[in-house]
């Protein structure tokens, strides 16, 4: 379960002691306090409530009930208690004390323990009069002011924010008084003490920063340019509220107003150090998270605590390093991982309790355990004059406080004490750099015996490209029997950075409701079924994909959520959100009223649904644009890997949208890493897949070419392949390629007969040529998608494509090849064997 989601869900589960019936008041005055844990103040507009609460998440966890009670503010209409502010995080009311909120003799607002009459918490202001009142205002601000003059304010909760940024409050400095208002995360989901993360502004440079333990900067928002912070352009989008930033002689602060006063927006710094903006959805009875920063939790400094490895693609994302165990599983469950993991076996005690570094004993028996491909821990110390990894390991062994070393391009680095902020880099190139090797010092006993790793034996077929191509065709023909079957895709792709466009985390129950218990089925796909649903106001139609509860479903789920959240284009279907609860995996997309291209092309229910030529052309151009964006337009290169009519959806105006990113691969910008594990659908697979060679975005070009042929013919290419006698001459792509070379022959006769000749022949010829270029055997001969767009838009002239060599060969242009299975391997011979 993605961690943020868990936090949001858990926050939602904090239970609230239901109010007893009492007349709502917004004021505490001398002699009229809030006595007992169930009395409360309600702001005059009824939006906010102040009262005592006891965080209790026992329904979800096995923790014993919490003995602590806090004074806090929450939204009156949000039934799931979500504390927005708490007064006494550092000094809770502990059972069996009975709290009372009152005005004390000196005019301060205090929490008293009724049983002992001692002060547990106080506003500790210096009111000029003891004739004061405390009022919960309509914006959620609790103010202590003079009872006769409401402008005379002595203290206000907006000056002491906890983890939530209220609309109308200021985050920043009062330069005159030195007051610094900043958000501080809570220690855990139940413990309201301050945590390690703070979000605030620098008094001097005015730059907003998310900081860990006052020392390590995690995210900087950059400079304010009048509209937004340079590094957070999403601030002006429609998703977030309207912000104002002020920086003058007296103060520097950020504030915001809600576009809709009645909206309940939650701008909070989570327990795990991730800031997020959510909105309460009455219809869903839950918080919907629209925005989060950092986008990936592992980019939040030390979110897993010391001696852990953070992996955004794992579940849970935090894991202990080898030789270490979770320090406190109860704390971890509550979101407090500051103690991370602890060593199973102490290091060799050569430095001795009394030894003080004396080297009387022999060299320590500690060993090093290699952790591969990680972002190295924070706080490295560079060691000069080391020439090898061995030297480096000796340096570390020679100092009792040294816990790890790494020897790489930067030479020798060692670490002392706790190892924090280690992150697993993804080997597929979705992370910057490929990570480094970290050698962690362990007691000899904890180092696993050096089991030799088996070498990866990838597919090694030492045959020519023609062989691979033949295999493609052989596989293509299996479509008849194995329609809709998928090749397994490789490991889950890594999360790509960037974006900042939030994807909503839904609860299962809400999607169940939205789809009327999955009653309106739109279709079935590779890994699950798709249902129609209605969100919120019932006007927003969505398509909810429920993935099968198996391994493939899980892979698709992770791939989709991690890759589509960062891409946005008119020709790509928009992922609105997802649900991940127990073994339930669902994806929520914008609804596409015209369904998918395969339905329109191949499953014509009646003659009136024939897709006319201009729409087909529009679809061809749109899909090309979408793919060009994926390959080159967004920050990282994304290979879709599964382009086929089923994955091309159409909106009301037949604008095509590429869907199903379940097999997509996000590659780094440099394109230095490519994939080798075959994925995709038979019939649309490029030949290079079969060889186990590294592939590039040209595999999408190939699949796209295959789809173009189907747009022209209105039939599946595969439906015209005849394995019998090796006769491929009727294979549509081959027919087209040959026809282009036969002068005098009209290309028009190749077009779907359902169009009754109503097609722009110039466009038909252009699209035929482009399609043939796209399915060239060598990826170098295929155009890039950006070029395809140019061709189709008529901006560049398309040359005559050669007949794809492979197709020609197979179809009997040369002696028919023989292919047979030899102990499970497909073998192809150019000559007839005797
Ligand atoms: C409280 O709200 C009511 C209207 O709902 C208004 O008439 C009244 O003046 C308000 N009281 C204060 C103290 O603002
Ligand atoms: C306010 O202070 C005066 C003396 O300064 C004291 O007599 C009075 O009792 C105080 N009022 C309250 C409500 O404690
Ligand atoms: C009320 O308090 C404000 C702020 O302290 C002050 O400026 C104002 O003069 C006071 N008004 C009266 C009527 O005392
Ligand atoms: C946070 O910093 C303080 C002092 O700067 C230090 O004592 C404390 O150990 C740090 N906390 C953690 C969890 O490292
Ligand atoms: C071990 O390393 C620490 C940190 O660099 C240093 O302060 C300490 O003096 C070293 N101890 C020995 C015995 O070299």
TrEMBL record:
PANTHER family noted in UniProt? OS07G0415500 PROTEIN, RECEPTOR-LIKE SERINE_THREONINE-PROTEIN KINASE
Q: What class of enzyme is it?
A: transferase
**Cross-referenced Gene3D superfamilies:** Bulb-type lectin domain, Phosphorylase Kinase, domain 1, Transferase(Phosphotransferase) domain 1
- Using the record, list the residue span of the signal peptide; answer none if the entry has no such feature: 1-23
Catalytic activity reads:
L-seryl-[protein] + ATP = O-phospho-L-seryl-[protein] + ADP + H(+); L-threonyl-[protein] + ATP = O-phospho-L-threonyl-[protein] + ADP + H(+)
Kindly list the places in or outside the cell where this protein is found, as annotated in its UniProt entry.
Membrane
InterPro entries tied to this protein: Bulb-type_lectin_dom (IPR001480), Bulb-type_lectin_dom_sf (IPR036426), Kinase-like_dom_sf (IPR011009), Pan_app (IPR003609), Prot_kinase_dom (IPR000719), Protein_kinase_ATP_BS (IPR017441), S_locus_glycoprot_dom (IPR000858), Ser/Thr_kinase_AS (IPR008271)
Tell me what topology the record assigns in the membrane.
Single-pass type I membrane protein
Tree of life domain: Eukaryota
Q: Is Cell wall biogenesis/degradation set as a keyword in this record?
A: no
The residue ranges of the Apple domain are 351-443
Report keywords, A-Z.
Answer: ATP-binding, Disulfide bond, EGF-like domain, Glycoprotein, Kinase, Membrane, Nucleotide-binding, Receptor, Serine/threonine-protein kinase, Signal, Transferase, Transmembrane, Transmembrane helix
Q: Can you say what this protein is called?
A: Receptor-like serine/threonine-protein kinase
Organism field: Miscanthus lutarioriparius
EC number(s) given by UniProt:
2.7.11.1
The record's similarity note reads:
Belongs to the protein kinase superfamily. Ser/Thr protein kinase family.
| Record: residues binding ATP | 545
The family database entries (Pfam families) matched by this protein are listed as: B_lectin, PAN_2, Pkinase, S_locus_glycop
The Bulb-type lectin domain sits at 25-157
Quote the cellular component terms of the Gene Ontology held in the record.
membrane
Molecular function terms from GO: ATP binding; protein serine/threonine kinase activity
- Mind giving the lineage of the organism this protein is from? Eukaryota, Viridiplantae, Streptophyta, Embryophyta, Tracheophyta
What GO biological process term is on the record, naming one? recognition of pollen
Chain segments annotated as transmembrane: 459-480
Describe the location of the Protein kinase domain by residue ranges.
516-795
